[in-house]
């Protein structure tokens, strides 16, 4: 693992705690925005009343608990052959205290997923502040169902607090706070960089974590798509993210209305590319705002990494 001293970690934690207390958005554009939720909260209340009056609320909750175990295969020219077939389970945005049945639903879904590694890409709590006791209990259920030999790595999202770090360590997950962990098989290594949330809590340390990653095959875990361009310039090979919930409540056909993202809608869900970098935005396992989904199924994702096969000499000659 990249050498980050206890002092580095303490500085990061103190800085994160100060930003959480300040109730501001610290964004990559370097502006400090106040959080204005008045109109959005009004819309949520109005939508909740509408769902109640039309009888759609219960259907929305049922939809939210109907998760998809999505299988995604991604091929890379520079993946070491020793990692061909490597499986990464991604759980993003579970907001585990939103619905009591969500933890058991996720556990049931992942128990046969056979990952080598599990990554959690943020947003574990429903609200932006307050208790996370229910999150702890639900994660204990989920983690008991995950059998990942290379462990569980996690980053914090904008709904999370630095105060959750001891909880994750006690449960057996490792929080990556702007640092890189390297995984080896035989003589080959891949590097996984976990970046702190850039939607509310951006710092220069988060951006430089991407450039500090060692040479080789690099994966970045970032809560939101906000840092995709910086990651592409830093020659990250795979960017795993969430935050958008895919819209959560979408128009028929899955077109998102609100993604809470400052990036282009093409990053709202699923697989995308930016330059040489491949990216994937999870629709998330959970819900925020209201505990409902429409036209946007929640997901837990299993990635299978594939190393491109060398082209046969005859193919290479034909393309000259
Ligand atoms: Fe979220």
Mean pLDDT: 91
* Number of E-state strands: 16
* Whole-number tally of structural domains: 1
Assign the structural class, choosing from mainly alpha, mainly beta, alpha/beta, alpha+beta, or little secondary structure.
Answer: alpha/beta
| N-to-C series of helices and strands | HEEHHEEHEHEHEEEHEHEEEEEEH
Which second-level CATH architecture applies?
A: 4-Layer Sandwich
Q: Name the CATH class.
A: Alpha Beta
CATH superfamily: Metallo-dependent phosphatases
Strand content: 15-25%
Span between termini: 42 Å
Q: Any idea what the radius of gyration is?
A: 20 Å
Q: Which term fits the overall shape?
A: globular
Strand order of the largest sheet: 3-16-4-5-6-7
What is the count of DSSP helices, taking H or I runs of 4+ residues?
9
Major β-sheet, in short? 6 strands, mixed
Bound molecules: fe (ii) ion
Spans where pLDDT lies below 50 across 5 or more residues: none
List the helices and strands and how they pair.
Layout: H1 6-22, E1 24-26, E2 32-34, H2 38-54, H3 57-65, E3 68-76, E4 87-91, H4 102-110, E5 117-120, H5 133-145, E6 152-154, H6 165-171, E7 173-175, E8 179-185, E9 188-194, H7 204-212, E10 217-221, H8 228-233, E11 238-241, E12 250-251, E13 255-256, E14 270-274, E15 277-281, E16 299-307, H9 313-318
Parallel strand pairs: 3-16, 4-5, 5-6, 6-7, 9-10, 10-11, 11-15
Antiparallel strand pairs: 1-2, 4-16, 8-9, 12-13, 14-15
Brief account:
With 320 residues, the chain is of the alpha/beta class.
Explain this structure to me?
- It contains nine helices and 16 strands.
- The chain has helices at residues 6-22, 38-54, 57-65, 102-110, 133-145, 165-171, 204-212, 228-233, 313-318, and strands spanning 24-26, 32-34, 68-76, 87-91, 117-120, 152-154, 173-175, 179-185, 188-194, 217-221, 238-241, 250-251, 255-256, 270-274, 277-281, 299-307.
- The protein is globular.
- With 320 residues, the chain is α/β, with parallel strands linked by helices.
- Strands 3-16-4-5-6-7 form a six-stranded mixed sheet.
- The protein has a single domain (37-309), classed as 4-Layer Sandwich (Purple Acid Phosphatase, chain A, domain 2), CATH 3.60.21.10.
- It binds fe (ii) ion (FE2).
- Fe (ii) ion (FE2) is lined by residues 93, 95, 123, 157, 159, 243, 245, 284, 288.
């Amino acid at each position: 693992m990249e050498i980050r001293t206890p002092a580095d970690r303490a500085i990061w934690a103190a800085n994160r705690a100060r930003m959480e207390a300040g109730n501001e958005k610290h964004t990559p554009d370097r502006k400090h925005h106040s959080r204005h939720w008045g109109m959005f909260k009004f819309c949520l209340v109005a939508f909740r009343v509408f769902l109640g009056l039309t009888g759609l609320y219960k259907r929305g909750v049922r939809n939210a608990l109907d998760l998809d175990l999505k299988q995604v295969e991604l091929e890379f020219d520079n993946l070491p052959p020793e990692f061909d077939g490597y499986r990464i389970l991604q759980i993003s945005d579970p907001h585990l205290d939103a619905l009591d049945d969500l933890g058991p639903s996720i556990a049931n879904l992942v128990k046969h997923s056979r990952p080598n590694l599990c990554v959690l890409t943020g947003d574990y709590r429903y609200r932006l502040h307050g208790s996370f006791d229910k999150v702890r209990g639900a994660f204990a259920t989920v983690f008991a169902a995950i059998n990942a030999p290379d462990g569980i790595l996690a980053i914090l999202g904008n709904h999370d607090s630095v105060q959750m770090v001891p909880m994750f360590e006690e449960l057996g997950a490792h929080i990556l706070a702007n640092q890189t962990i390297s995984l080896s098989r035989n003589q080959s290594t891949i590097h996984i960089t976990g970046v702190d949330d850039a939607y509310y809590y951006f710092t220069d340390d988060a951006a430089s974590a991407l450039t500090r990653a060692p040479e080789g095959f690099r994966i970045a875990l970032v809560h939101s798509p906000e840092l995709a361009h910086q990651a592409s310039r830093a020659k990250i090979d795979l960017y795993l993210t969430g935050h958008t919930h895919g819209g959560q409540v979408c128009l028929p056909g899955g077109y998102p209305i609100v993604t809470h993202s400052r990036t282009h809608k093409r990053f709202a869900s699923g697989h995308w590319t930016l330059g040489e970098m491949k990216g994937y935005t999870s629709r998330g396992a959970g819900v925020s705002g209201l505990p409902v989904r429409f036209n946007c199924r929640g997901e837990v994702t299993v990635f299978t990494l594939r190393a491109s096969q060398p082209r046969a000499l005859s193919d290479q000659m034909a393309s000259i």
